[in-house]
Amino acid sequence: MSFLNTLEGALNKGKAKLKEFQGGKPNQQPQQHQQQYYNQPPQGQYPGAQNQYPGGQQQYYPPQQQQQQSQYYPPPQQQPQFCPPQQQQSWNPPPQSQSPYQSGPPPIPSWSKPQSPAVNLATRPPTHPPSQNQPYWQPHFDASLPVSTYFIQETGAHGWGNNESQNYTNVPANCFFTPHQQLVLRGIVNTSAPNDKYTSARLVSEQRFARQRGYLSATLKAPCAPGIWPAFWALPAEPFTWPNDGEVDIFESWNGDCVNHSCLHWGHFNGEDWNKHRVVETHIGDMPHREVKIGFAWQQDEDRNGAGGKLVWYLDGRPVMKANIPEGTRRISDYRIVINVAMGGNVCQGKLPADGTYDFVVRELAMWDTPNGGWEQFNRDFDQTVEGKAG
Description:
Blueprint: H1 2-22, E1 89-90, E2 135-137, E3 151-154, E4 167-168, E5 175-177, E6 183-189, E7 198-200, E8 202-208, E9 213-221, E10 228-236, E11 247-252, E12 259-265, E13 277-283, E14 292-300, E15 309-315, E16 318-324, E17 335-343, E18 356-368, H2 374-384, E19 389-390
Parallel strand pairs: 1-13, 4-7
Antiparallel strand pairs: 2-18, 3-8, 5-6, 6-7, 6-18, 8-17, 9-14, 9-18, 10-11, 10-17, 11-12, 12-13, 13-19, 14-15, 15-16
GO biological process, one term: carbohydrate metabolic process
InterPro entries: Beta-glucanase-like, ConA-like_dom_sf, Glycosyl_Hydrlase_16
Keywords: Lectin
């Protein structure tokens, strides 16, 4: 038995060495290296890899979404830019998707407008003063109130110094408050009518600016069409001499040109005073399709009557024009708001609007003790903003 046991042990050792020589251990498979895959795209290959979107953070799209197109247009290279002072300034903030009438307009058909183009919401700037800054005057556009609660309704069809065609009335068809705190000035054109083919409204605020320094703000939806001239501006309280006592144009557009004309007028009409007008023209390409937020800030010196101080005009939160308060003008605290929709005349180059209705919608109208960002920001805006060109 011992010999057989010895022989069996030797055979087992031989089998084990044979397996070891063949290079394997029982029940062990050759090791495989699994490849890891990452779906991180190369820089700039997919939408959002380089573009900045609302919120200020870059967005990443995995491969299965790489064909999805961004909803923000136009692409960066097509966005209009601010231009030097000698040229038109231009930008294109986002359109407002909400109708200017939150509960529907009165049952008169409005002038039709094409669809608003989409724009990059990241360009939207801050607009109004912070909530802790309370207005010292803010009219409540209650539909149960007459417009005369807050405004003088000027009337007449005498051309208004520019050979205009409209007859300003005080009837509700041309001017009214809506149930959602909106003021509407409605131009109505009916060329088949025997009289008053062109009617509209012109309002002057009962409230004066009434402060040595302050800020005026409003949200506007302006009509844009040939022959139409909507304006939001300011004049000294009557009696006054024009243009000697001054005029401030905050928002006005002519003939549907989609250009806002910020202006300051004073002085006389003669050869020596040709340069006593300051103008900056700002192109707003989607003006017919959205609201525009306007602002005007003034800071007048105490020790000079009718002169000394600074003015800054704002569009959608951006300063677009500055001016020093000219000598000889009335103090800004004595100015009143003027809102109107003119038709035809010299400014519209003799063009008259087609039949229809043209609505100038105003909301969020207010006067504040402090502009957006405070007076330190106002001074920075004044230092960095262009001065209007003579014209």
